[in-house]
Structures are given as C-alpha cells and as structure tokens.
Give the backbone structure.
Amino acid sequence: MADSVSREEVAVISNTDITSTESENNIINTMVERGTALLRKLEINVAEAEKRTGKNTVNMQETYTVYLIEIRPAETEGGTPAAPDTLWRRYSEFELLRTYLLVTYPYIIIPPLPEKRAEFVWHKLSADNLDPDFVERRRVGLENFLLRVASHPVLSNDKIFFLFLTEEKGWRDAVLETGFQDKADSRLKSLSAMFRVKNPDKRFTALKQYSDELNSVISQLLRIRARVADRLYGVYKVHGNYGRVFSEWSAIEKEMGDGLQSAGHHMDTYAASIDDILEEEEHFADQLKEYLFYTDAVRSVCRKHELIQYELEMAAQDLAQKKQQKEELATGTVRIFSLKGMTSKLFGQESPEQKESRLAALEQSIQEGEETVKEKNTECQEFVRAAWDDIEHFKEQRDKDLREALISYAIMQISMCKKVWTFILVCILCMYINS
Amino acid sequence: MSISAPRGLASSGQKPITEILHPLSAAEEPLSPGPDVTVSGGRDKEVGLTNGTPVETPSPASASVLFNRLQLDDDLDSDGRDPYADTETHDLFVTVDDPKKHVSTMETYITYRVSTKTTRIEFDLPDYSVRRRYQDFDWLRTKLEDSQPTHLIPPLPEKFVMKGVVDRFSEEFVETRMKALDKFLKRVADHPVLSFNPHLNAFLSAKDLNKRQGLALLSKVGESVKNVAGGYKLRVRPPEFCAMGEYLDTFNQKLGTIDRIAQRILKEQSEYLTELREYGTVYASWAGSEEELQRPLEGVAGCVTTCCGALEDMSENMGQDFLPVLREYILYIESMKNVLRKRDQSQAEYEGRLEAAVLRKQEDRTPIPAEVEKCQDKMECFNADLKADWERWQSNKRQDFKQLLTGMADKNVTHYEKCQAAWESLITLLQDKQTEDKTRTSVMSLLEGRVFIQIFPGQTSSTPNASLFLSSSRQRGFAREDKI
C-alpha cells in the first residue's frame, strides 16, 4: 500500500492487522499529503545514526551521535530513484535550527524535537543517551521533526531550514548571520517576565489554559504508564519461574514428562516476550511526548501574544497620558498630579515661550506615540491573525495525530493479545500431545 | 464478529490428537500482519471500510472450541489407556450436586445432595438420594482411612478456610468445593475395594448418618494393621517403595514451589491492576479537555477498565480453581506418606518377628509360629494393595493436573480474548469517525470547484461543518457518499 496519497488510504486504515509502524507511516503520509511546495520537490528522511568522537569547545574528547539526513528529489514518473544527497547533523544543530525558528516565527507553534534526555523511564530502560534503543527512537523523532517543518505552510518556505537540509558546512554561519541570537535573548526575557494584561484575549487565555491542562494530563499519563510497564514486567518475569519448576517436575514424571517440559519451555518464552512488548509501547509513549512538548510551544505563542498585547496597552496608556498632559498644559488645569504642575503652582507659572516649547515637544511625542500605537496595533492584529491560522492548523493535526496514535496503540494491544492466546493454545496442544 | 473455525476442525467426529495440530498453522497466522484487504478502484470500498477483521484469522471463539474438543477426546481416551479399566466398577454411580444453605440457631452450613444409582446387592435399593454436609464427607474419609489403611484414599477439598479472607457461602467457593467433593466420591465409588466399604454404603444410603455409631465391620487386614506392634525398625525399603517415597517427596516440593509462584503472581497482578486502573482514569480525565478526541479517549478509558475487569476475573479463578487443587494434593501426599510408613511398619514387624523366630528355631527347634506367616500375608497384601492403588493414583494425578493446567491456560485465553475484543471494538469506533473525516477531506480536495460548500453559522468547533452538494453526476464512485 505504498501509494497512500490517494483515497485508497481509507481502506488501509480499516485493516486492523496493519502493524503500528504502518499506522505511524499513515501519519507521515498525511503530512506528505498536505502537499507543501517543499515536499512536492523533495523526500526527506533521517536514515542512520553514527557515533563520533571529537574535541568539544573546551578541548576535551567527547562521544556524540550524528544523524544522516537524506534528501531525494520526489519520485518522478518512470525514472529510477536518484541517489540521495546526504549530510550529517548532530542533535545540537537541530536545537539551533529550532531556536532560530522559534525566534523568527513567534506566532507559529514550532514542532518539538525529541527529548534531550530519556524521561518517564521505567526501570529497565537505560537513560543513557548513547543507548542504541534511545538513539533509534531519537532518529525517528528527528525525522518527524523535519517532516513536520517541511509540511508546514509557513515554515517550509524558510531559507535557513532549506540550508539545514542541504548545506552541511556553511549552515551554522548562515544561521548566525541572521542575527536571530539577539532576538533570542530578548525572547527568553519576555517569556520569563511577569506582567499583567488589562484586556486579555479570551481565545488565547482559553488556549493557554488548555495547553496547561494537556501538559499536566500527558505528564501524568506518561508517569503512570511507566509504573504500569514496570508492574507488567514483574508479572511476566514471575511466570518465568514456572519454567524452571516445570522442568524439574518433568524429570520425575514418566508419562507427563514431555508435556511438562514443553510447558516449562513455553513459560520461559512467555516471560521473555515482555521485553519486545514494552519496547513497542515506547513508540506510543514517544507519540505522547511529542504532544507534551508541543504544549510548551503553544504556551510560548500565547505568551508572545500576551507580550505584544501588553506592549500595545503600554503604548496606548502612554499616549493617553501624554494627551492628558497636553490638555492640562493647554487649559492650565491640573487633573493629574505632575511635578511640573506642582512646581508651577508653587513657584509660579512659566513663561509663555516655555509653555509653547513644551507644548510643541508634547505634540511631537504624541505624534510619535500615535505611530507606535498604530504599529503595535497592526503588529498585534497581524500576530493574532497569523497565530490563529496556525492554531487551527495545529488543532486539526493534533486530533488526527492523536487519533492515529490511539488506533496504533489499540492495534498493538490486539496484536499482543493474539500472540499470547495463540501461544497459550500451542502450549495446551503440546501438553496434550506429549502426555 | 464472525466466527470462523480453524480449518482442521471443519469435519465432525473425533479427530486423533495429531490431526488437530493443523489449526496451529491457522492459529499462527495472526502472528504476522494479516492479509491486506485490497481495494480495487472505488467499488469494493464497502469491504474495506466496514469489515474490521480480515477473513482468515481464527477468531477467539475457536480457541474455546478447540479446547473443548481436546477435553472430550481426552475423557474418552483415558478409559482406553487406563490399565485398571477392567477393574473399574460400573455398577455404582454417584453424584454430588444441588448445594443448599441451612440456617439454624447454632450454625449456618451448606448441604449437598448425594445421589446414587446401583445394581449392587450390598444396597437395599437401586436409587438413593440423601443430603450430606462437608463434615459427613470428612467422617467418611476418616473411616475409610482407618478401615482400609493399605489403600490410598482420595483427597477432600481443604477443610479450613480463613473466615475473613474467603466467603464460605459465596457461589464460587461452594461450586469449587462441590466439584471436589463429587470427584472424591466418584473416585471412591470407582475403586474396586473402597467402593465395597460399609461406611460408604452407610454414607450413601442412611437417612441420618449416625457418626458415633462405630460400625464394627472393619476388614481383617484393617484390624490387624491397626494393631501393628510398634518398636520394629525397618532395615531396607524395597526399591519400588523407595521410588514411591522419593517421588512423593520431590513432587511435594515442586507443588510447594508452584503454590508459592502462583501466590506471587497473584500479588504482582494485583499491584499491576492498581496501576492499570489509575491509568484508565487519566484517559477519562483527559477526555474532559478535548472535543474531537473526547469519544476516542473515553473509548480508551473504557477499554482499559474492561481489561482490568478481565484481569480481576482471572485472578479470582486462580485463587479458586488452581490453588485449592494444589493444596489438595499436598495434603494427599501427606496421607500417602503415612500409608507408606504403615507399610514399612508392617514389613518391619514381619521381618522382626521372622528373625526372632528363626533364631529361636536355631536354638531350640521351635517351629516358626503361625503369626509370622500371618505377618507375611499382611505385608504382602499391603504391598499389593499399595502398588495397585499407586498406579491408579498416578493415572488420576495425570488427569487432574492436565485438567488443572489446561484449565488455567483456558482461563488465560479467555482473559486475552476479552481484552482483544475490547480493543477491537474501540478500533471500530475510532475508524468510523476517521473514515468520515478522511472521506470528507478527500472528497473536498478531489471535487475541486464542482461543489457548493455551505457553512452553517454558529458552529463552535474549529473546522467548518461542511455539507456538500454534489453538482455533477460524473463523480467518481464513492461508497461512503451517504455518510457525508
């Protein structure tokens, strides 16, 4: 079922026997289906991972992993697939790319990267970044990230992103040249700043609240899932103890011996099967984690909006104050306490020339203020429009992705159940045949 | 879900075990991704969209069919394989059923109906129906042990149950106990010697079982064995009885280990269950924050809850069917070891007396007294009875354990069947909605311009609710038009 861009895809998903990998492919195909210009031209995947050693910034030897990005021109009719262009990237470069995107497109929910360190682990999983299973899952996550960016209507057109995929050496300089670092610092400041907006946009407030709820519930889910996995592991492993005792028991039996022996053997196999089962479940956990990290991106957009809103309000407030001052100056009434007003009250009025020059300065200031307010207003409106566009896009994607993930999870559960009861049947049959 | 039996079971009538192997190949199919439901053009979409399961997979229902088939074969086979089939009595049939609760001022207890059908002359009537309680069965067993000490008496279900832990009047407990009592009585009735015991007769026929009535009809051997003189020490146990003793010791040990493992599994399962329940509730609470995903998430929560229920049932079964039988056998082994010891005693006595008599003969030519010969008779009877019973015991034990282990396996299969069914119905739920969405977007993208999209105002959901009016009749056929 390779040609899944067509409506045939519907039938594929109805087949409950597709594996969860195939279901995951459906998500990727969905992204491809969206048909950004970039994806119409190119096929992107992260094919391999390799360990490298080298000297780091403090001149010490370190081991790190690099990932191979393959770019191929999209399939053309009748032609043999061309050899891919490849380059190697390490995780920190992906991080740099993402930071650049965060700063450059603050109104877009930027797709997240796979986690830096393994979290929500249950006892067996190694939290070591160099562990092959972790590296493999990270490879998949990085590929997902690239595909999500490439299928985004706005992000896919970004030049730096394109260079990331095509320029191995010169990319870092190109990114730094954009000067995004400066904006990065101010962005970080704004994210952590405490300020209160007078007229919060209800939609953004609701979105932020939702994103916080989602973050909390997915964290909880991942934590409990890890505990469930741990317990299930225990159950399976204790069954393994049956293996040995059945074996020993079979030694003293004449007629039941063979049957018991194979029952014992099957117990061992059953106990060992938990490792694969839990490894597959990690895949589901990864899908949940992606959305957990997405909530951070959503929150960040909401915060940015708050900041812009706040700046607008501040600018408007400032303008209003200045206008007030001008009015007072012009009419001579003091409605608002000001030092100048008080001193003139105390020490006498100023000269008409002084008053004129002050009025002129205020006029100027007011004009500038009006410009600022207009700018900020436009900025805010633009932001809201662009952001909300992207948010709708995100919500649709979320619903689709999570539904696919749940289907994939259910398929995995079914497949596990089938394996186990089929397996038990074999066990029963062996017992009957051999006794 | 349609039920399709695996190919091997298509024909009726019994199949030898080897032929039943074939369903395995059918059973193994689901281990690899099943056959794709291929769709040709747009016409056959109905097949792909509505049918959730591929046709060839053996469905869960076939597992139970297979199992029952095997049980049936086994029951019929066992008669053929039993070397003691000829000596089995076929003129005394007993059944234990119909439990009833009795409440009196002093105590509450359960009685069971014991029905007998017989052609034996030892019985006055051909049919009997009496009510007995556990105490009565216990009395019978004790009497049998006393009066037939050279025989192995079948086990009873456990006498004592922890009042706080197990409900003695729960349906499951009573059911389990009753089955064990039925098995006990049937075994006694089938035994060529025990079934003629007058205590059994009284148990089956007497209106009121007067247990204090000491029926003085002990068998000759019983009497003499009871009065075996102590103080004789056995020198060498014959090899066949050594083997029995060793077997019993090892078997006892293994059963003990299995019991411990089973209890550990129950504990682990219970802890797993606790976590799993919480896992389900998180999905339910997540559903609360979502719109489109609300139903799918609630579906998952429901699935997890169903799996929890299934696991609870399985654990209960383990506690009620598996562990009691193990413990029954452990008690049984104890009583068998006692019988072995008594046998040893009787041999020791014979050898002791013989030695003494031989010495005396050498000294003063006193002939070997008749008692010594009686002792020899006694010992040889004991040995013969024990050997015969041992074979019978082995055969019963094989059957019991095969049934026990396959029974447990069957319960496991049922558990996974339940879980699988829950997840499969969830997929149907998830896919139906997805089909709708997919078709909508596909159609929208493909109909390009030949469509009027009317957007209903006042919708709160993020995606406009589109109703499509298809203008052209030259549409490519979509089987799901009606869903739009």
Remarks:
- Residues 370-447 of chain B form the longest helix (78 residues).
- Chain B is about 60% helix and 10% strand.
